[in-house]
Automatic annotation (TrEMBL):
This is Acyl-coenzyme A oxidase. The keyword Secreted does not apply. FAD binds at T156, G195. GO terms for cellular component: peroxisome. It comes from Arctia plantaginis (Wood tiger moth). It comes from the Eukaryota. It is found in: Peroxisome. Its cofactor is FAD. Residues 293-454 form the Acyl-CoA oxidase C-alpha1 domain. The active site is at E439. One of its GO terms (biological process) is lipid homeostasis.
C-alpha cells in the first residue's frame, strides 16, 4: 500500500482496523484499476512522477500571494510535463486511456488546485484530434504534443455560456485575402473563463459565428494565435487578460479575450466537418448538425471519472480520520468510541465509498460506449450519437451533483478539522463544485436528456424500436409492472418504473397544457421541473443497473470475501437511493409502507456489515499521500501530529510577536489610538 515520504509510525487505531479487514485489499485495487496490469502501470507512472519529490513546494501554496501561486503552478506544470514526457517514452502513448487518467490523477500531487496547462491537454488537444482534417492534424499535433505551443478552449462569453447558438463573436470570411476576420462586437461577446487564457497560452480554439458570402452558418471552431511565440506579447488586435479571484481554480489563470477585426488564415478553421472553400463557398457536414459540439461530449464522459476519483480521495480522508477520532461517551465508564462506530457517521461515509465505485464503473462503461459510437461515426454512421449525448449529459450532471454533495458530507463528517485547508477537503470541494457548472450546467444537461426521453417514450407508445438504455419504456407503456420483492434486481426494476412513470407524467403534462392552448415550447417550459426529475430518475436507474452488472461481471472470478463486500456496497447504494426516493416508489411501484420499513432495516444491517472493512475499502483506492494532500487522511493516520505540523507552517507562527501589536493593539489597549 501507499506510504508517505515523511514516514511516521502508523497510528494503532489504523493498525487495528487493517487487521480487522476480512478481504484482500489488493484484489479490490485491481478491480478499481480495471485489472492487475493497470495497477502495475499506474504505480510505475506514479513512481516516476513522484518518487523524486519534484512536486514539493518550498512554501505551502496556501500562504503564497495569487501571483506567486500562479507562478509556482506554471513552474510545476513545466516540471510535470518534462517528467511526463520521459515517463511516456516507456509507455504506449498519450492516447492510451489509462495513461491519460493516471497522469491526470498523478498531477494532483503537483497541484493542490489546478494546472494552468489543464485545458491544453484536456480540451485543446482533443479538439484538434476531433475537429481537424488529417492534414491539419499533421501540422498542429506535433507542436501541441511536444508543448511547442500551449493552447486552450475559448467558447464561453461574458454574456453566454449555456446557449452556444447565442454566442456573439464573429468570424467573417474574406475571399480577397483568404482569411477570416475575428471580431468581438460587444462587451458581452468577450470570451470569458477559458483556463490558461489569462497569462499562459499563446494559442486557443475560438468558437465563433461563421459568416461567408453574407450568410451566417452558426458556430464553428478556429485555431487562433493570440500571443507572440518569442515575446509572449498579445498580438495586435487581441485584448487578453485574467478574470480575477475565484472560489477555486486560482492557479488556472482563467481569462478573457476580445478581437478587433483580427485576421487568421482560412486554414485555421477546423475543417473536419464543415468547410469554407477558397472562394467562400460553405460546405455543410453531411452527417449530423452538432458535430462541432464533440469535445464537450468527450469532456463530459471524462468528468464522470474525474469526480469518482475526487470522491475516492474525500472518503479516504474522512474514513481514515473517523477511525482515528474518538468522541463522546454513550456508555458510562467505557472509552469514547471511534466516530466511525456511530451509525450516522457510517450513513454519511459508506454511501461515498459505494458511489465512488459506482461512478468509476459507470465511467468505464460510458468510455467504452463513447469509443463504440466514435468508431461508428468514423464509418459515417451517426445513429447512436443522440443516445450518447443523452447518456453523457445526464451522467455528467448527476455524477457531478452527487459528488459535490457527498464531498461536503465528508467534510461535515470530519467536524472542525475538516474545515482546515490542510484536511484537503476544501480544495477537493471547490474543484468539484465547479464541475457541476462547467461543460454544461446541471439543469441544462438534464433537460437535454429529457428531450431524448420524451422522444423515446413517444417511440415506445408508437411501437417503434427504442435504444438499449430506455428499453424499460416498452414494458411500461404495455402496462406490465413487476411486483415489489425488495431484491437488488427488484430495486433496479423499481428505479426504471420510477423513471418511466416520471417520463409518462411529463408527456401527459405537456399534452394537457398543449390541449389547453399552449404552444409546445410553453408547455415544455412549464413542465421543466418534472422533466429534470425524470432525467435524474433515468440516470439513477442507468447507474444502478450498470454498477450491479459490472460488479457481477468483474467479480465472477474474485475471492469469496471480495465478492461479498463488493455486493454489500452495491446493495448499500441501491437501498440508500430507494430510501431517498420513497415518495416516488410509493407513487410508481407496488411497494408498501411495511416494505419501506424493511428497506430501512436492511440498509442499517448493511452499514453494520460494512463497518469492519471500511478502512480496508478506502485503502483499496490506493491513493498516495502525496496525491491526497491531507493531514487527516494520510496512510499512517497520525492526524494530530500532522495537524500540529501544519499549524507551525503558518506565517503568523514565524515570529513570537506580530508588528500589529506595536502599531495597533498596544496603542488601543493603552487608549492612545
Ligand atoms: C477544466 C474546466 C474546463 C471547462 C471547459 C468548459 O466549460 S468549455 C464550455 C462548455 N460549454 C457548454 O457545455 C455549454 C452547454 N451548452 C450546450 O451544450 C448547448 O448549448 C445545448 C446542448 C444546451 C443546446 O444546444 P443547441 O441550442 O445547439 O441545441 P438544441 O437544444 O436546440 O438541440 C438541438 C438538437 O441537438 C442535439 N444536441 C445538442 N447537443 C448535442 C451534442 N453535443 N451531441 C449530439 N447532439 C446534440 C439535441 O439533442 C437536439 O436533438 P433533437 O432533440 O432535435 O433531436
Ligand atoms: C471553473 C470554470 C472553468 C471554466 N472553464 C471554461 C473554459 O475553459 N472554456 C470555456 O469556454 N468555458 C469555461 N467555463 C464556462 C462554463 O462552461 C459555463 O460557465 C457553463 O457552461 C455555464 O454557462 P453560464 O455561465 O452561461 O451559465 P448560465 O447559463 O447563465 O446559467 C445560470 C443559471 O441559469 C439557468 N439557465 C440557463 N439557461 C436555461 C434554460 N434554457 N432553462 C433553464 N435554466 C436555464 C442555469 O441552469 C443556471 O441555473 C468555465 C466555468 C467555470 C466555473
Amino acid at each position: 500500500m501507499s506510504q508517505n515520504k515523511t514516514i511516521m509510525e502508523v497510528n494503532q487505531e489504523l493498525v487495528k482496523e487493517r487487521a480487522k479487514c476480512n478481504f484482500n485489499v489488493l484484489e479490490v485495487t485491481h478491480i478499481l484499476d480495471g485489472g492487475e496490469k493497470n495497477t502495475l502501470h499506474r504505480k510505475k507512472i506514479e513512481s516516476i512522477a513522484l518518487d523524486e519529490g519534484a512536486y514539493k513546494d518550498p512554501i505551502p501554496e496556501e500562504y503564497l500571494s495569487p501571483k506567486e501561486k500562479y507562478e509556482n503552478a506554471v513552474r510545476k506544470s513545466c516540471l510535470f510535463c518534462k517528467i511526463v514526457k520521459n515517463a511516456l517514452t516507456e509507455f504506449t502513448g498519450l492516447e492510451h486511456f489509462s495513461n491519460f487518467f493516471v497522469l491526470r490523477r498523478t498531477a494532483d500531487a503537483f497541484f493542490k488546485e489546478i494546472s494552468p496547462f489543464l485545458l491544453h491537454l484536456g480540451m485543446f488537444l482533443p479538439t484538434i484530434l476531433g475537429q481537424c482534417t488529417t492534414e491539419q492534424q499533421a501540422y498542429w499535433l506535433p507542436r501541441v504534443l511536444d508543448i511547442q505551443i500551449i493552447g486552450t478552449y475559448a467558447q464561453t462569453e461574458l454574456g453566454h455560456g449555456t446557449f452556444i447558438r447565442g454566442l456573439e463573436t464573429t468570424a467573417t470570411y474574406d475571399p480577397e485575402t483568404e482569411e477570416f476576420v475575428l471580431h468581438s462586437p460587444t462587451l458581452t461577446s468577450y470570451k470569458w473563463w477559458a483556463g490558461g487564457l489569462g497569462k499562459t497560452v499563446n494559442y486557443c480554439i475560438v468558437v465563433a459565428q461563421l459568416y461567408t458570402k453574407g450568410v451566417c452558418h452558426g458556430t464553428h471552431l478556429f485555431i487562433v494565435q493570440i500571443r507572440d511565440e518569442e515575446t509572449h506579447m498579445p498580438l495586435p488586435g487581441i485584448k487578453v487578460g485574467e478574470i480575477g479571484a475565484k472560489m477555486g481554480f486560482n492557479t488556472a489563470d482563467n481569462g478573457y479575450l476580445a478581437f478587433d477585426h483580427y485576421r487568421i488564415p482560412r486554414q485555421n478553421m477546423m475543417m473536419k466537418n464543415a468547410q469554407v472553400l477558397k472562394d467562400g463557398t460553405y460546405v455543410k457536414p453531411d452527417s449530423h448538425g452538432k458535430l462541432t459540439y464533440g469535445t464537450m461530449v468527450l469532456v463530459r464522459v471524462i468528468l464522470v471519472n474525474e469526480v469518482a476519483f475526487n470522491l475516492a480521495k474525500a472518503c479516504t480522508i474522512a474514513t481514515r480520520y473517523s477511525a482515528v477520532r474518538r468522541q463522546s461517551q454513550p456508555k458510562p465508564n467505557e472509552p469514547e468510541p471511534q466516530i466511525l462506530d456511530y451509525t450516522t457517521q457510517q450513513h454519511k461515509l459508506f454511501i461515498c465509498i459505494a458511489t465512488a465505485h459506482a461512478l468509476q464503473l459507470a465511467s468505464a462503461w460510458l468510455w467504452k460506449t463513447f469509443n463504440a459510437v466514435m468508431s461508428d461515426m468514423k464509418k459515417g454512421n451517426t445513429d447512436s450519437l443522440p443516445e450518447l449525448h443523452a447518456l453523457s449529459s445526464c451522467l455528467k450532471a448527476l455524477s457531478t451533483s452527487d459528488v459535490t454533495s457527498l464531498i461536503e458530507q465528508c467534510r461535515y463528517s470530519c467536524g472542525g478539522h475538516g474545515y482546515m485547508l490542510c484536511s484537503g477537503l476544501p480544495n477537493i470541494y471547490s474543484f468539484v463544485t465547479a464541475t457541476r457548472t462547467y461543460e454544461g450546467d446541471y439543469t441544462i444537461l438534464l433537460l437535454q436528456t429529457a428531450r431524448f426521453l420524451v422522444k423515446a417514450y413517444e417511440q415506445a407508445e408508437a411501437g417503434t424500436p427504442v435504444t438499449p438504455t430506455v428499453l424499460y419504456l416498452i414494458e411500461f407503456v404495455s402496462g406490465k409492472r413487476t411486483p415489489w420483492d425488495g431484491s437488488p434486481e427488484g430495486i433496479i426494476k423499481s428505479f426504471q418504473e420510477i423513471a418511466a412513470g416520471n417520463i409518462s407524467s411529463c408527456v401527459k403534462s405537456i399534452r394537457n397544457r398543449m390541449s389547453s392552448g399552449l404552444s409546445f415550447e410553453d408547455a415544455w417550459e412549464l413542465t421543466t421541473i418534472q422533466l429534470v426529475g425524470a432525467a435524474e430518475a433515468h440516470c439513477r436507474a442507468v447507474i444502478s443497473d450498470t454498477y450491479k452488472k459490472e460488479i457481477a461481471r468483474i467479480t465472477a472470478s474474485s475471492s469469496t470475501n471480495v465478492k461479498i463486500v463488493m455486493e454489500q456496497l452495491v446493495n448499500l447504494y441501491l437501498h440508500y437511493w430507494a430510501l431517498n426516493r420513497t415518495g416516488d416508489l410509493l407513487r410508481y411501484s407496488s411497494i408498501s409502507g411495511e416494505d419501506v420499513a424493511n428497506l430501512q432495516m436492511k440498509y442499517e444491517e448493511l452499514l453494520t456489515l460494512i463497518r469492519p472493512n471500511a478502512v480496508g475499502l478506502v485503502d483499496a483506492f490506493d491513493l498516495r499521500d502525496e496525491i491526497l494532500h491531507s493531514a487527516l487522511g494520510s496512510y499512517d493516520g497520525q492526524v494530530y501530529k500532522r495537524l500540529f505540523a501544519e499549524a507551525l507552517k503558518s506565517p503568523l507562527n514565524q515570529e513570537p510577536v506580530n508588528e500589529t501589536f506595536h502599531k495597533y493593539l498596544k496603542p488601543t489597549m493603552q487608549g492612545k489610538l
